[in-house]
Design goal:
17% strand; eight-stranded parallel beta barrel; alpha/beta; TIM Barrel; 255 residues
Length: 255
């Protein structure tokens, strides 16, 4: 069976190497200023938060939205009540650094850089692009890397969403002081989604952390079930970009 995550991570190594040759880490460090933990501040203002994802494509399902640009999606989400935006910079999702920089100029909401981070270089790069937070996927990092990358993000004033997919991932995440833990409802090998994954993992989570259910949310009812189960928020991409009225769906999932 095809392992999509393994394919992406293998390609990511070459992408990072090419980026380093174009702009060395020391050059990036000279360009950046620390952020002010904007994600953390935003989430503390409300008891429910929607991270709306500017997602045009999926490696498993292909093109998801042909009617809007990433910038247009960002504007709709901000106007419709999203707490934060997630912007892809990985080519498998039609993401790129240039799109992220454009969205940063366009909106005032906190931005999560959605990518497969395997090297500290990408964390500094995220801050250079204007990211307020990064995604750290427990499955593709060693426990030592997970902790190290978390501290690196914090040293730059950025928050980190630590993503887990099963009990082993959850254990790794809870062994760090991560404030935000995202339970991904996507099977990382097949990329199929089911919110039952969040419901199954929540009992082993730490309720003092901010718990976010990621992917597989397609209705207000899904959001209601997750909120009642103990989630503090949701990250939604496909469920928004494929809806008939993106603004209306954003408003439904935001409350």
């Amino acid at each position: 069976m095809r392992d999509i995550l393994a394919e992406i991570v293998a390609e990511k190594k070459a992408i990072v190497a090419a980026a380093k040759s174009k702009m060395p880490l020391e050059e990036i460090k000279a360009k950046i200023k620390p952020d002010t933990f904007r994600m953390s501040k935003k989430f503390k203002k409300g008891d429910w938060n929607l991270i709306a994802e500017c997602k045009l494509q999926s490696p498993a399902k292909g093109r998801l939205n042909k009617t809007h640009t990433v910038e247009e999606l960002a504007r709709i989400y901000e106007e419709s009540g999203a707490s934060m935006l997630s912007v892809h910079t990985d080519p498998h999702f039609l993401g790129c650094n240039e799109d992220f920089a454009k969205v940063r100029q366009l909106v005032k909401l906190p931005l999560l850089r959605k990518d497969f981070i395997i090297d500290e270089y990408q964390i500094y790069e995220a801050r250079m692009l204007g990211a307020d937070a990064i995604l750290l996927i427990a499955r593709i990092l060693t426990p030592a890397q997970l902790k190290e990358f978390l501290y690196t993000a914090w040293s730059l004033g950025m928050d980190a969403l630590v993503e887990v997919h099963d009990e082993a991932d959850m254990k790794a995440a809870l062994s760090t002081p991560a404030e935000f833990i995202g339970i991904n409802n996507r099977n990382l090998k097949t990329f199929k989604t089911d919110i039952q994954q969040t419901l199954d993992l929540l009992p082993s989570a730490d309720s003092s952390r901010v718990l976010i259910s990621e992917s597989g949310v397609f209705s207000a009812e899904d959001a209601k079930v997750l909120r009642a189960a103990g989630c503090d928020g949701i990250l939604v991409g496909e469920g928004l970009v494929r809806s008939e009225n993106i603004g209306a769906m954003t408003r439904k999932l935001s409350h």
